[in-house]
Specification:
The complex is a heterodimer of chains A (286) and B (91).
Chain A lengths: L2 E7 L2 E7 L3 H9 L12 E7 L10 E6 L9 E2 L3 H16 L3 E11 L2 E6 L6 H9 L4 E4 L2 E5 L5 E2 L5 E4 L18 E4 L2 E6 L3 H5 L7 E9 L6 E4 L2 H11 L3 H18 L2 E6 L2 H13 L2
Parallel strand pairs in A: 2-3, 7-14, 14-16
Antiparallel strand pairs in A: 1-2, 3-4, 4-5, 6-7, 6-8, 6-9, 9-10, 11-13, 12-13, 15-16
Helix pairs in contact in A: 5-6
Chain B lengths: L6 E2 L7 E4 L2 E6 L4 E5 L3 H8 L6 H9 L8 H14 L3 E2 L2
Antiparallel strand pairs in B: 1-5, 2-3, 3-4
Classes of the chains: A alpha+beta (286), B alpha+beta (91).
């Protein structure tokens, strides 16, 4: 690869290579202040020309690396940053074996972690990022990494992917923490947000999980809380994990321990403020 | 004439967790996880490393539990499910 950027996020080291400098320059700016890994990286991501002539002619990028999705559509070069981010997600989802990976946002307070998980569009990413700006420490908005031996979370504070109107909720943050506006992506308009200094400084601290919430957003939905029992929690989290099956017995042991020891609830909310109030109430009562 | 005989691995319930009346079983032979409601775990326990036909299974389970008159029909249905899931097989 002609251009290379190396990045450490929590316990994971990435090597991102590209045919072009532009996407990597955007990544360097977005991840300013993050450590540079020493030695061999865990995962390699390649953001490279879809076809050789696509380096110059209507440049389009394909996401490649240690693990690939054969039918992934290429993106225009202007969305190269998104391609790199998707590439990092893909390597984690398909290749991570040291931790039980849960598709969840996570934040820390009082030395303990709150996990926000659920279906795509439930608001877990936005909520975890908002909490991270309101007194909680942001641990991640995409993947929660659960230690297989100790059951503790490893922070993985990647840049937050804010979709469409969600970016408006962070308008008071300094411009230098934002990546470029990426319009016309497969998920609409996306803007990345660098986590704050506290999240970056604490990315190597382990945090025991203390509460798991399944948020569900609906503008017409009345606010509601429903406890989620251990068996239902187990079933839901097997669906939220990208590597539970691959981890076999160790994944089973880690997940059963989590489900037996950590309370969980499903919350419906109609507005962001409603969700934040519910989170505070449930956290106090955990 | 006795019906078919069934058998489960001797360690079929070795990696399992009870949660809210359900039994979550990690099946070591296949690497699959199964969430079982009663009486499926009791049937597995009755067949773990010890093959038996339906009559023998009812007899083994009946030693610990009171069985309803509909138990034979229910047993046949549960055995079909457990066989489809790969947790029991015919030796």
């Amino acid at each position: 690869m002609k251009h290379v950027f190396r990045l450490k996020v929590g316990p994971v080291a990435f090597r991102i290579g590209s045919d072009w400098e532009a996407p990597l320059a955007q990544l360097r700016r977005l991840y300013a202040g993050y450590p540079t890994p020493e030695g061999i990286c865990d995962f390699t991501v390649r953001v490279e020309a879809d076809k050789p002539w696509r380096r110059r002619l209507r440049p389009s990028v394909a996401i490649r690396g240690d693990y690939v999705l054969p039918d992934a559509a290429p993106l225009p070069l202007a969305q190269g940053l998104l391609a790199a981010e998707m590439g990092m997600n893909l390597q984690m989802a398909l290749g991570q074996r040291r931790y039980l990976l849960l598709h969840a946002g996570a934040v820390e307070r009082d030395g303990q972690a709150l996990l926000l998980t659920g279906e795509s569009g439930a608001g877990k990413s936005t909520l975890s990022a908002l909490l991270g700006e309101r007194g909680w420490r942001f641990l991640g908005d995409e993947f929660a990494l659960l230690g297989l031996g100790d059951g503790e979370l490893r922070p993985f504070p990647r840049a937050v992917s804010l979709k469409n109107a969600a970016a408006d909720l962070f308008a008071d943050l300094p411009e230098e923490r934002f990546g470029p506006v990426l319009s016309g992506t497969p998920k609409g308009t996306i803007r990345h947000l660098r986590p704050n200094d506290a999240a970056i400084a604490g990315m190597h601290d382990r945090v025991p999980p203390a509460l798991i919430l399944f948020p569900r957003f609906g503008p017409e939905r009345p606010a509601a809380v429903r406890p989620v029992g251990a068996a239902e929690l187990f079933m839901r989290l097997t669906q939220a994990s990208t590597n539970y099956v691959a981890l076999a017995r160790t994944g089973f042991d880690a997940l059963t321990r989590l489900c037996r020891s950590v309370p969980a609830a499903a919350i419906d909310y109609g507005s962001t403020e409603e969700a934040l109030a519910l989170v505070d109430r449930l956290w106090a009562a955990r | 004439m006795a019906g078919p005989r069934y058998l489960a691995d001797a360690d079929v319930l070795a990696v399992a967790a009870e949660m809210e009346g359900l039994t979550i079983v990690f099946h070591q032979a296949s690497g699959q996880t199964h969430i079982l409601a009663p009486p499926a775990p009791q049937i597995l326990a009755a067949l773990a490393g010890d093959a038996g036909d339906e009559e023998q299974i009812l007899s083994r389970i009946g030693a610990d539990f009171d069985l309803a008159p509909a138990a034979p029909a229910a047993l046949a249905a549960r055995l079909a499910e457990l066989e489809a899931a790969g947790l029991v097989h015919r030796p």
